[in-house]
Write a structure and sequence with these properties.
362 residues; nine-stranded mixed β-sheet; eight-stranded antiparallel β-sheet; globular
Length: 362
Protein backbone atom coordinates (compact mmCIF):
# COMPACT_ATOMS: atom_id res chain seq x y z
CA UNK A 1 0.00 0.00 0.00
CA UNK A 2 1.16 3.53 -0.77
CA UNK A 3 1.29 4.70 2.83
CA UNK A 4 3.19 1.58 3.85
CA UNK A 5 5.87 2.54 1.33
CA UNK A 6 5.85 6.04 2.82
CA UNK A 7 6.43 4.60 6.28
CA UNK A 8 9.34 2.45 5.17
CA UNK A 9 10.93 5.40 3.41
CA UNK A 10 10.45 7.78 6.30
CA UNK A 11 11.86 5.29 8.78
CA UNK A 12 15.20 5.69 7.00
CA UNK A 13 15.36 9.45 7.44
CA UNK A 14 14.76 11.95 10.20
CA UNK A 15 11.14 12.53 9.25
CA UNK A 16 10.42 8.90 10.13
CA UNK A 17 9.48 9.76 13.66
CA UNK A 18 6.20 11.13 12.45
CA UNK A 19 5.65 8.62 9.67
CA UNK A 20 2.83 6.15 9.71
CA UNK A 21 1.37 3.84 7.14
CA UNK A 22 -2.32 4.33 7.19
CA UNK A 23 -5.23 2.67 5.53
CA UNK A 24 -4.86 3.22 1.80
CA UNK A 25 -7.59 4.94 -0.17
CA UNK A 26 -9.19 2.26 -2.31
CA UNK A 27 -12.08 2.45 -4.76
CA UNK A 28 -15.37 0.89 -3.79
CA UNK A 29 -18.31 -0.33 -5.80
CA UNK A 30 -20.34 2.60 -7.12
CA UNK A 31 -23.41 0.39 -7.45
CA UNK A 32 -23.35 -1.60 -4.22
CA UNK A 33 -23.15 0.46 -1.06
CA UNK A 34 -22.92 -2.70 1.03
CA UNK A 35 -19.63 -3.60 -0.67
CA UNK A 36 -16.57 -3.56 1.56
CA UNK A 37 -13.23 -2.62 -0.04
CA UNK A 38 -10.52 -5.20 0.11
CA UNK A 39 -8.38 -4.48 3.14
CA UNK A 40 -11.23 -3.55 5.51
CA UNK A 41 -13.22 -6.03 7.57
CA UNK A 42 -16.68 -4.88 8.62
CA UNK A 43 -17.44 -5.27 12.33
CA UNK A 44 -20.83 -5.27 13.99
CA UNK A 45 -20.47 -3.42 17.28
CA UNK A 46 -23.53 -2.07 19.07
CA UNK A 47 -23.04 1.26 20.85
CA UNK A 48 -22.17 1.08 24.52
CA UNK A 49 -22.63 4.09 26.79
CA UNK A 50 -19.87 5.73 28.78
CA UNK A 51 -18.52 6.10 31.44
CA UNK A 52 -15.12 4.60 31.00
CA UNK A 53 -14.50 1.62 33.29
CA UNK A 54 -12.33 2.35 36.31
CA UNK A 55 -10.02 -0.54 35.42
CA UNK A 56 -8.38 1.16 32.42
CA UNK A 57 -4.87 2.53 32.11
CA UNK A 58 -4.85 6.30 32.57
CA UNK A 59 -1.98 8.72 31.91
CA UNK A 60 0.02 10.76 34.38
CA UNK A 61 -1.12 14.37 34.94
CA UNK A 62 0.02 16.98 32.40
CA UNK A 63 2.73 19.45 33.41
CA UNK A 64 0.36 22.36 32.80
CA UNK A 65 -3.22 23.02 33.83
CA UNK A 66 -5.79 21.98 31.22
CA UNK A 67 -9.03 23.91 31.56
CA UNK A 68 -12.61 22.88 30.92
CA UNK A 69 -14.49 24.54 28.09
CA UNK A 70 -17.72 24.34 26.15
CA UNK A 71 -17.53 22.84 22.67
CA UNK A 72 -17.10 25.41 19.90
CA UNK A 73 -19.25 25.14 16.79
CA UNK A 74 -17.47 23.77 13.71
CA UNK A 75 -15.98 26.18 11.19
CA UNK A 76 -18.44 26.72 8.34
CA UNK A 77 -16.57 25.97 5.07
CA UNK A 78 -18.67 28.62 3.29
CA UNK A 79 -17.31 31.42 5.51
CA UNK A 80 -14.46 33.66 4.30
CA UNK A 81 -11.02 32.16 4.89
CA UNK A 82 -9.97 35.55 6.25
CA UNK A 83 -11.85 34.68 9.46
CA UNK A 84 -9.27 31.97 10.21
CA UNK A 85 -6.23 32.66 12.34
CA UNK A 86 -2.62 31.59 11.88
CA UNK A 87 -1.12 29.05 14.24
CA UNK A 88 1.91 29.88 16.37
CA UNK A 89 2.89 26.21 16.58
CA UNK A 90 6.41 25.40 15.39
CA UNK A 91 6.45 22.90 12.53
CA UNK A 92 9.20 20.43 13.47
CA UNK A 93 8.63 18.12 10.52
CA UNK A 94 12.28 18.20 9.39
CA UNK A 95 13.97 17.74 12.76
CA UNK A 96 12.58 14.50 14.14
CA UNK A 97 14.57 11.37 14.84
CA UNK A 98 13.23 7.86 15.28
CA UNK A 99 13.81 6.27 18.68
CA UNK A 100 14.59 2.60 19.25
CA UNK A 101 12.46 -0.21 20.76
CA UNK A 102 11.27 -3.35 23.35
CA UNK A 103 7.58 -5.99 25.30
CA UNK A 104 5.95 -7.83 28.34
CA UNK A 105 3.93 -11.02 28.51
CA UNK A 106 0.67 -9.50 29.82
CA UNK A 107 -1.05 -9.20 26.44
CA UNK A 108 -1.07 -10.69 22.96
CA UNK A 109 2.10 -10.59 20.87
CA UNK A 110 2.57 -8.24 17.92
CA UNK A 111 4.43 -9.69 14.94
CA UNK A 112 7.25 -7.96 13.10
CA UNK A 113 6.11 -4.95 11.02
CA UNK A 114 2.69 -5.01 12.67
CA UNK A 115 0.06 -2.57 11.38
CA UNK A 116 -3.46 -2.58 12.77
CA UNK A 117 -6.44 -0.22 12.79
CA UNK A 118 -10.01 -0.13 14.02
CA UNK A 119 -12.69 2.52 13.96
CA UNK A 120 -15.12 4.38 11.74
CA UNK A 121 -14.70 4.13 7.96
CA UNK A 122 -16.57 6.52 5.64
CA UNK A 123 -17.66 5.76 2.09
CA UNK A 124 -19.70 7.15 -0.81
CA UNK A 125 -19.21 8.33 -4.36
CA UNK A 126 -18.79 12.13 -4.00
CA UNK A 127 -21.88 12.93 -1.87
CA UNK A 128 -22.54 16.54 -0.78
CA UNK A 129 -19.88 16.64 1.94
CA UNK A 130 -16.76 18.80 1.95
CA UNK A 131 -15.60 18.75 5.61
CA UNK A 132 -15.05 16.42 8.55
CA UNK A 133 -15.08 17.59 12.18
CA UNK A 134 -14.35 15.89 15.52
CA UNK A 135 -12.63 16.11 18.87
CA UNK A 136 -9.51 14.00 19.42
CA UNK A 137 -7.65 13.33 22.66
CA UNK A 138 -4.08 14.56 23.12
CA UNK A 139 -1.41 13.86 25.76
CA UNK A 140 2.08 15.13 26.45
CA UNK A 141 4.94 12.64 26.37
CA UNK A 142 5.56 13.20 30.10
CA UNK A 143 2.09 11.77 30.74
CA UNK A 144 3.28 8.36 29.52
CA UNK A 145 0.52 7.91 26.89
CA UNK A 146 2.10 4.74 25.44
CA UNK A 147 4.24 2.91 28.04
CA UNK A 148 6.85 0.85 26.23
CA UNK A 149 6.50 -2.88 27.01
CA UNK A 150 9.70 -4.37 28.51
CA UNK A 151 11.46 -6.68 26.11
CA UNK A 152 9.84 -5.46 22.90
CA UNK A 153 11.90 -5.03 19.75
CA UNK A 154 11.64 -1.78 17.83
CA UNK A 155 9.47 1.27 18.51
CA UNK A 156 5.75 1.73 19.00
CA UNK A 157 4.21 4.20 16.55
CA UNK A 158 0.54 4.78 17.31
CA UNK A 159 -2.00 7.14 15.79
CA UNK A 160 -4.67 7.53 18.43
CA UNK A 161 -6.91 9.03 17.17
CA UNK A 162 -6.47 9.89 13.48
CA UNK A 163 -9.05 11.34 11.06
CA UNK A 164 -9.18 11.67 7.27
CA UNK A 165 -12.29 12.77 5.32
CA UNK A 166 -13.52 10.66 2.43
CA UNK A 167 -14.46 11.95 -1.03
CA UNK A 168 -11.12 13.08 -2.37
CA UNK A 169 -9.74 14.91 0.66
CA UNK A 170 -5.98 15.48 0.77
CA UNK A 171 -5.35 15.76 4.51
CA UNK A 172 -5.30 13.71 7.71
CA UNK A 173 -5.05 15.05 11.29
CA UNK A 174 -3.59 12.79 13.96
CA UNK A 175 -2.46 12.47 17.54
CA UNK A 176 0.73 10.48 17.07
CA UNK A 177 2.89 8.85 19.75
CA UNK A 178 6.28 7.16 19.48
CA UNK A 179 7.49 5.00 22.35
CA UNK A 180 10.76 3.13 22.79
CA UNK A 181 13.23 2.02 25.42
CA UNK A 182 14.66 5.53 25.21
CA UNK A 183 11.36 7.23 26.10
CA UNK A 184 8.26 8.69 24.45
CA UNK A 185 7.41 11.57 22.13
CA UNK A 186 3.97 13.06 21.43
CA UNK A 187 2.94 14.84 18.22
CA UNK A 188 0.10 16.45 16.34
CA UNK A 189 0.63 15.67 12.66
CA UNK A 190 -0.90 16.46 9.28
CA UNK A 191 -0.44 14.04 6.39
CA UNK A 192 -0.86 14.99 2.70
CA UNK A 193 -2.18 12.38 0.26
CA UNK A 194 -2.24 14.72 -2.74
CA UNK A 195 1.37 14.44 -3.82
CA UNK A 196 3.11 11.72 -5.78
CA UNK A 197 5.02 10.62 -2.70
CA UNK A 198 2.39 11.07 0.00
CA UNK A 199 4.01 12.41 3.16
CA UNK A 200 3.64 14.30 6.42
CA UNK A 201 3.69 18.06 6.04
CA UNK A 202 3.23 19.26 9.62
CA UNK A 203 4.39 18.05 13.01
CA UNK A 204 3.99 19.91 16.30
CA UNK A 205 5.07 18.66 19.69
CA UNK A 206 2.15 18.17 22.06
CA UNK A 207 3.52 20.28 24.89
CA UNK A 208 2.37 22.99 27.29
CA UNK A 209 1.93 25.49 24.43
CA UNK A 210 -0.19 23.06 22.44
CA UNK A 211 -2.28 22.30 25.53
CA UNK A 212 -2.72 26.00 26.36
CA UNK A 213 -3.97 26.94 22.91
CA UNK A 214 -5.78 23.87 21.60
CA UNK A 215 -6.62 21.34 24.33
CA UNK A 216 -9.52 21.41 26.77
CA UNK A 217 -11.76 19.07 28.70
CA UNK A 218 -14.84 19.29 26.51
CA UNK A 219 -16.25 15.77 26.96
CA UNK A 220 -15.76 13.98 30.26
CA UNK A 221 -12.32 13.82 31.82
CA UNK A 222 -10.05 13.41 28.82
CA UNK A 223 -8.18 16.34 27.21
CA UNK A 224 -9.08 16.90 23.57
CA UNK A 225 -8.52 19.30 20.68
CA UNK A 226 -11.13 20.29 18.10
CA UNK A 227 -10.08 19.17 14.62
CA UNK A 228 -11.51 19.96 11.20
CA UNK A 229 -10.48 19.29 7.60
CA UNK A 230 -12.38 21.04 4.81
CA UNK A 231 -12.36 22.57 1.35
CA UNK A 232 -14.33 25.75 0.60
CA UNK A 233 -15.46 24.15 -2.67
CA UNK A 234 -19.07 23.01 -2.59
CA UNK A 235 -18.08 20.12 -4.83
CA UNK A 236 -14.56 18.78 -4.08
CA UNK A 237 -12.44 18.27 -7.17
CA UNK A 238 -8.92 17.77 -8.45
CA UNK A 239 -8.35 21.54 -8.11
CA UNK A 240 -9.68 21.92 -4.55
CA UNK A 241 -7.57 23.37 -1.76
CA UNK A 242 -7.89 21.51 1.54
CA UNK A 243 -7.37 23.05 4.98
CA UNK A 244 -6.45 21.51 8.32
CA UNK A 245 -7.66 23.70 11.19
CA UNK A 246 -7.71 23.46 14.98
CA UNK A 247 -9.81 25.53 17.35
CA UNK A 248 -7.67 27.93 19.39
CA UNK A 249 -9.38 28.16 22.79
CA UNK A 250 -6.84 30.74 23.94
CA UNK A 251 -7.72 33.14 21.09
CA UNK A 252 -11.30 31.99 20.43
CA UNK A 253 -10.86 31.22 16.75
CA UNK A 254 -9.94 28.48 14.31
CA UNK A 255 -6.29 28.45 13.21
CA UNK A 256 -5.01 27.13 9.89
CA UNK A 257 -2.42 24.44 10.58
CA UNK A 258 -1.79 23.41 6.97
CA UNK A 259 -3.31 23.83 3.52
CA UNK A 260 -2.60 22.06 0.23
CA UNK A 261 -3.98 22.02 -3.29
CA UNK A 262 -5.15 18.70 -4.71
CA UNK A 263 -2.92 19.30 -7.75
CA UNK A 264 -4.90 16.89 -9.90
CA UNK A 265 -5.07 14.16 -7.25
CA UNK A 266 -8.73 13.27 -6.82
CA UNK A 267 -10.82 10.16 -6.32
CA UNK A 268 -14.49 10.87 -5.67
CA UNK A 269 -15.13 7.50 -4.02
CA UNK A 270 -11.98 7.37 -1.89
CA UNK A 271 -12.86 6.32 1.66
CA UNK A 272 -12.02 8.12 4.88
CA UNK A 273 -11.69 7.19 8.53
CA UNK A 274 -11.65 8.05 12.21
CA UNK A 275 -9.62 5.27 13.82
CA UNK A 276 -7.01 4.12 16.30
CA UNK A 277 -4.01 2.86 14.33
CA UNK A 278 -1.09 1.13 16.05
CA UNK A 279 2.18 0.14 14.43
CA UNK A 280 3.22 -2.04 17.31
CA UNK A 281 6.80 -2.98 18.12
CA UNK A 282 7.53 -6.68 17.82
CA UNK A 283 6.68 -8.39 21.10
CA UNK A 284 4.00 -7.84 23.70
CA UNK A 285 1.29 -5.46 22.52
CA UNK A 286 1.31 -1.92 23.95
CA UNK A 287 -1.15 -0.18 26.20
CA UNK A 288 -2.41 3.32 25.42
CA UNK A 289 -3.92 6.18 27.38
CA UNK A 290 -7.64 6.55 26.54
CA UNK A 291 -8.22 7.73 22.98
CA UNK A 292 -11.59 9.43 22.54
CA UNK A 293 -13.37 10.81 19.47
CA UNK A 294 -16.64 12.71 19.77
CA UNK A 295 -18.86 14.98 17.66
CA UNK A 296 -17.67 13.27 14.47
CA UNK A 297 -19.67 15.04 11.77
CA UNK A 298 -19.57 16.12 8.12
CA UNK A 299 -20.67 19.39 6.51
CA UNK A 300 -23.59 18.87 4.11
CA UNK A 301 -23.34 21.44 1.33
CA UNK A 302 -26.87 20.60 0.18
CA UNK A 303 -28.46 21.63 3.46
CA UNK A 304 -25.83 24.02 4.84
CA UNK A 305 -25.63 22.07 8.11
CA UNK A 306 -23.51 19.53 9.93
CA UNK A 307 -24.59 15.88 9.88
CA UNK A 308 -23.49 13.55 12.66
CA UNK A 309 -21.65 10.59 11.17
CA UNK A 310 -24.20 7.76 11.10
CA UNK A 311 -24.41 4.45 9.23
CA UNK A 312 -26.44 6.05 6.40
CA UNK A 313 -25.95 9.67 5.33
CA UNK A 314 -26.95 12.10 2.59
CA UNK A 315 -26.19 11.47 -1.07
CA UNK A 316 -25.55 7.75 -0.62
CA UNK A 317 -22.70 8.18 1.86
CA UNK A 318 -22.44 5.50 4.52
CA UNK A 319 -20.16 4.47 7.39
CA UNK A 320 -19.38 1.39 9.41
CA UNK A 321 -17.03 0.16 12.11
CA UNK A 322 -14.17 -1.69 10.46
CA UNK A 323 -10.94 -3.48 11.16
CA UNK A 324 -7.72 -3.38 9.17
CA UNK A 325 -7.43 -6.34 6.80
CA UNK A 326 -4.21 -8.19 6.02
CA UNK A 327 -3.18 -8.20 9.68
CA UNK A 328 -3.71 -10.57 12.60
CA UNK A 329 -4.76 -7.48 14.61
CA UNK A 330 -3.48 -9.21 17.71
CA UNK A 331 -3.26 -5.99 19.74
CA UNK A 332 -6.91 -5.18 18.95
CA UNK A 333 -8.33 -8.71 18.99
CA UNK A 334 -5.94 -10.76 21.13
CA UNK A 335 -4.41 -14.10 20.20
CA UNK A 336 -3.42 -17.44 21.70
CA UNK A 337 -0.70 -15.78 23.77
CA UNK A 338 -2.97 -13.29 25.53
CA UNK A 339 -5.85 -10.81 25.35
CA UNK A 340 -6.02 -7.58 23.36
CA UNK A 341 -4.11 -4.64 24.83
CA UNK A 342 -6.36 -2.06 23.12
CA UNK A 343 -10.14 -2.29 23.45
CA UNK A 344 -12.36 -0.39 21.00
CA UNK A 345 -15.81 0.72 22.18
CA UNK A 346 -18.45 2.45 20.06
CA UNK A 347 -20.24 5.11 22.14
CA UNK A 348 -22.63 6.63 19.60
CA UNK A 349 -23.26 5.06 16.20
CA UNK A 350 -20.97 6.15 14.52
CA UNK A 351 -20.03 9.62 15.76
CA UNK A 352 -18.25 8.83 19.03
CA UNK A 353 -15.87 6.08 20.10
CA UNK A 354 -13.15 5.28 22.59
CA UNK A 355 -10.09 3.05 22.66
CA UNK A 356 -8.71 2.08 26.07
CA UNK A 357 -6.30 -0.41 27.62
CA UNK A 358 -6.62 -2.50 30.78
CA UNK A 359 -4.70 -1.41 33.84
CA UNK A 360 -2.10 -4.04 34.73
CA UNK A 361 -0.93 -2.76 38.11
CA UNK A 362 -2.51 -4.33 41.24
Amino acid sequence: MKKHAVLLTLLAISIAACSGNHTQSLPISQTNEAAVPSGIRRLHKPPRPTPFPNSIYTPLPPDTNVQRSVMPTPFDPSLPLSSLGTTELVNRISSLTLPHHRSTQSFALAPENDHESEGVFLFGNAPPYNALFATQTAYEAVQDPVPFPPGASGAEQIFAPTMHPAWGSCLENSSFYISSAAGETAHFTVFNFCVTSATFIFDATIDSTFLRDYVRYTDGDFPSYVSEIFTPDTVPSATSTWYSVLYNFHRHRYDVIASVNANGFFQADAFGWSIVEPYAAQGTCPRIAPALVSHLSAYDTATGGWDAVTPFMDGGAYTFIGLQGGSTNSCLLGDATGPASIDFTLITENSAWEATSPRTDP
